[in-house]
């Protein structure tokens, strides 16, 4: 079993900053790509940012230049630093990780966190 636990969401004013964290635990052999996605009410889930095990990053167009994704492989944790937040960033943010287990190291499974609410409002 693998669990992803997110933290760091909340209410922030426009122009403010938040830092999200997501820690993976459980039966882990390797963690490959990790990422953040978000879903606003009435909209589809969309890519925010991803990062490979080699720290190569990719960002959605709407967050480029404002958000930064990073990871600490020793802690099995991925972070999302969000700056210059806008009301349209309001959404539930989900962590994603592609993980192999010791018993089946050749098979990669995608895991999701439970989601953390980010609300940008004055």
Protein model, in words:
The protein is mostly beta strands and 122 residues long. 0% of the residues lie in helices and 61% in strands. It is built from no helices and 11 strands. The strands form 2 sheets. Strands 2, 4, 5, 6, 9, 10 and 11 form a 7-stranded mixed sheet that branches. Strands 1-3-8-7 form a 4-stranded antiparallel sheet, with no helix packed on it. The protein is elongated, with a radius of gyration of 14 Å. The mean pLDDT is 96.
Descriptive key words:
mainly beta; 61% strand; seven-stranded mixed sheet; single chain
Low-confidence stretches: none
Oligomer: single chain
Distance between the termini: 40 Å
| Secondary-structure element pattern, one letter each | EEEEEEEEEEE
Q: How many H/I helical runs?
A: 0
Q: Structural class from helices and strands?
A: mainly beta
Cα shape: elongated
The average pLDDT value, as a whole number, equals 96
Classify the helix fraction into a percent range: under 10%
Strand content: over 45%
Global Rg:
14 Å
Question: How does the major sheet shape up?
Answer: 7 strands, mixed
């Amino acid at each position: 079993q693998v669990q992803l636990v997110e933290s760091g969401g909340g209410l922030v004013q426009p122009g403010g900053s938040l830092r999200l964290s997501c820690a993976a635990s459980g039966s882990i052999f390797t963690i490959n790509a990790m990422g953040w996605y978000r879903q606003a009410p009435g909209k589809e889930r969309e890519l925010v940012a991803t990062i490979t095990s080699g720290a190569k990053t990719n960002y959605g167009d709407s967050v480029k230049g404002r958000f930064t994704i990073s990871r600490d492989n020793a802690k099995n944790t991925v972070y999302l630093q969000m700056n210059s937040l806008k009301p349209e960033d309001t959404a539930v943010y989900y962590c994603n990780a592609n993980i192999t287990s010791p018993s089946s190291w050749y098979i990669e499974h995608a895991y999701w966190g439970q989601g953390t609410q980010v609300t940008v409002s004055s």
